[in-house]
């Protein structure tokens, strides 16, 4: 068996000692779509997990606005929430409930699992009040609500909206392949129960590039604008890395997913996709910022996100930082081609 030659992307240093290393792959695209930098195995398929939510939200919006009438149910905060992984804050839940109510549905229609909110103050308050896990608090409920909204707008069935053969999921798969510019390599079931579409890492970067470079007023542009205008609905108000990155670098589009996946696109069209093979997300933002800086994208406003503190006794004693060796990656590629 041939083991993929992943690159070292980040190091965990504690009191000057390299405690751990994160390996994986990263690809950076120039604004014209050409591959600018790579490390690891950029053409290896990955399961993007929630990193694909902006494209799933796009498919829902396209489907919803193609129905009869001239309604536009997925805009603003609702569209940002559909493209995000919210933390279950009451403000998130309020928007999800409004989306469902607008489609004549209740929370019972949601097909995602029950969960506690990820937002710690909200979770603690609910537990103290004797609350229980709810589907609407699950971080994917915005995406699921958008899927249901699209189904109602098109008069499609809602009880089986997560079936891979459902018209919505077939249209979603086609939208993913169109933006990625490559066929879907694998189909799986995501943690929330929705169909999941595997792509080469380069294809994932292309989907984000397509969103930020889309013509003004297009559905792709509306998804990107909603995410950038309402970053707290993509993530949350308290320490969410996607939200913090989009706040720090206005115009940037960012969305991460489980198992160490992240895609980021700059307003000028540069795009990066990251996969950490051990599944840890803690270094992905730092890696993406280092990759963008390597091709000349200004990232100074996000310096605070380039180092993840390593604590000892509650105090910083080191950091997790990106250590991508682009020269080594290029040299290896040249040897393999010769």
Helix/strand layout:
Elements: E1 7-14, E2 17-29, E3 35-39, E4 45-46, H1 53-65, H2 76-82, H3 90-102, H4 120-128, H5 141-153, H6 167-180, E5 186-189, E6 195-200, H7 201-212, H8 219-229, H9 231-234, H10 241-248, E7 253-257, E8 261-265, E9 271-276, H11 284-294, E10 308-312, E11 315-322, H12 326-337
Antiparallel strand pairs: 1-2, 1-11, 2-3, 2-9, 4-6, 5-6, 7-8, 8-9, 10-11
What profile does the largest beta sheet have?
8 strands, antiparallel
| Low-confidence parts | 331-338
Tally of separate helices: 12
What is the 3D form? globular
Strand content of the residues, in percent? Answer: 15-25%
Quickly give the structural class. Answer: alpha+beta
- Tell me, rounded to a whole number, the average pLDDT: 94
Question: Care to describe what's here?
Answer:
- The chain has 338 residues and is α+β, with helices and mostly antiparallel strands.
- Helix content is 38%, strand content 20%.
- The protein is built from twelve helices and eleven strands.
- It has helices at residues 53-65, 76-82, 90-102, 120-128, 141-153, 167-180, 201-212, 219-229, 231-234, 241-248, 284-294, 326-337, and strands at residues 7-14, 17-29, 35-39, 45-46, 186-189, 195-200, 253-257, 261-265, 271-276, 308-312, 315-322.
- The strands form two sheets. Strands 1, 2, 3, 7, 8, 9, 10 and 11 form an eight-stranded antiparallel β-sheet that branches. The protein has a three-stranded antiparallel β-sheet with strand order 4-6-5.
- Helix 1 packs parallel to helix 5 (141-153).
- The longest helix is centred in the middle third of the chain and has 14 residues, at 167-180.
- The two termini are 22 Å apart.
- The relative contact order is 0.19.
């Amino acid at each position: 068996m041939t083991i993929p030659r992943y690159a070292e992307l980040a190091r965990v240093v504690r009191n000057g000692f390299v405690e751990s290393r994160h390996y994986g792959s990263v690809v950076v695209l120039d604004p014209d779509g050409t591959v600018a930098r790579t490390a690891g195995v950029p053409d290896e398929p990955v399961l993007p997990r929630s990193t694909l939510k902006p494209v799933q939200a796009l498919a829902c919006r396209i489907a919803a606005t193609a129905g009869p009438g001239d309604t536009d149910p997925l805009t603003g905060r609702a569209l940002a929430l559909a493209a995000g992984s919210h933390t279950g804050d009451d403000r998130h839940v309020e928007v999800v409930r409004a989306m469902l109510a607008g489609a004549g549905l209740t929370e019972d229609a949601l097909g995602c699992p029950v969960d506690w909110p990820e937002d710690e103050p909200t979770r603690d308050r609910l537990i103290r009040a004797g609350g229980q896990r709810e589907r609407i608090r699950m971080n994917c409920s915005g995406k699921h609500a958008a899927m249901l909204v699209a189904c109602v707008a098109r008069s499609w069935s809602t009880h089986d909206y997560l079936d891979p053969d459902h018209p919505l999921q077939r249209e979603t798969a086609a939208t993913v392949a169109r933006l990625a510019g490559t066929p879907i390599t694998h189909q799986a079931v995501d943690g929330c129960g929705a169909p999941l579409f595997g792509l080469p890492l380069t294809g994932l970067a292309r989907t984000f590039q397509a969103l930020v470079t889309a013509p003004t007023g297009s559905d792709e542009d509306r998804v990107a604008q909603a995410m950038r205008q309402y970053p707290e609905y993509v993530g949350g108000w308290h320490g969410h890395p996607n939200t913090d990155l989009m706040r720090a670098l206005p115009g940037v589009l960012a969305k991460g997913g489980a198992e160490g996946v992240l895609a980021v696109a700059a307003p000028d069209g540069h795009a990066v996709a990251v996969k950490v093979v051990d599944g840890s997300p803690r270094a992905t933002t730092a890696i993406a910022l280092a990759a963008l800086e390597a091709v000349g994208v200004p990232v100074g406003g996000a310096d605070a996100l380039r180092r993840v503190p390593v604590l000892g006794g509650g105090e910083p004693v080191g950091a997790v930082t990106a250590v991508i060796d682009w020269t080594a990656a290029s040299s290896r590629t040249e040897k393999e081609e010769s």
